[in-house]
Structures are given as structure tokens and as C-alpha cells.
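FW: tagging you since you asked about this chain on Friday. Here's the raw sequence from the shared folder, copied in full. Didn't touch anything.
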Amino acid sequence: MSRSLRVFVFALLVVSAAVTQVRAADMDARAQALIKLDDEWSKSAATKDAHKVASYYAATALAYPPNAVLASGREAAEKVWASYLATPDFKISWKTTHAEMAKSGDMGYTTGTYEDSYTGADGKTVNEKGKYVCVWAKQKDGSWKAVHDIWNSDTK
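HL: got it, structure written out here
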């Protein structure tokens, strides 16, 4: 490789790294509200209060639970969560790994991983890990609500 080509490649890498850092910093600053909200939502699941968990959904939200039919609306999503939380030893938590906000500031999304555990039909503890994507929309009152929420297990 010629010296000029090496210098060009090096300069390109430096510029690319700088742009990536600026984008990451911008994303973090603009998406902090969604990351915080998603973390609060995860903590609410530990209360085992399906109504509280469902309060994070917009009235017209769509939830896509694994191996189940589409839950259309906050009330349907609450029923999904109530069925999970009714299991006495069911536990779930999730962690946002990425968040972005639209330039308009009225839509955004979070992605991440979750872990849950419960006693299976055979009496053995099931430990499950998975991933999720949640689309958030800013509401008329300025609050953020989940409008699309999908999650699925990495377990086969």
C-alpha cells in the first residue's frame, strides 16, 4: 500500500471515529428520557401490578407477545401482563441497550434485553433471556407512551 493511500485510510478512520462519537453523544442526550422511562417500566414489572405495567402503553398501543396473538390496546396489553404476573414466582426485568429519538422529537424507540424466570409445568425453574423493541410516541399531554412493543425469547 502506498504512503498516500495509508495516510488517506488513516484520515478516513479518524474522521469516521469522530463522527461516530458525535452521533453516540447526540443519541444519548436526546434519548435519555426514553432510557429513563424504559428503566422505570422495568422496575414497575417487579411490583407485579399489571395495571401499573400497562400504564406505560398508549390507549391504542399494540403489544406483540411471544407465541401469542397481538394485544390491541392498553387493556389487552394489561391482560397479557396480568397472565404473566399471576404466576407466583414469575420475575422479569429488562435493560435498554440502545435508544434513539426522531429529529421531530415526537417518536423514538428503545431496544434491549430481558431476563425472566418462573416455574415451568414440569416443576423446574425456567430461566429465559430475550430481546425487545419498543416504539414510543409523545402524547398530547407531553408524556411518552409505548405504541408498539415486541419481545421474544432467545431460548429455543
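FW: The beta strands are 57-64, 71-72, 91-101, 107-119, 125-138, 144-153.
HL: agreed, and The radius of gyration is 20 Å.
FW: great, closing this out.
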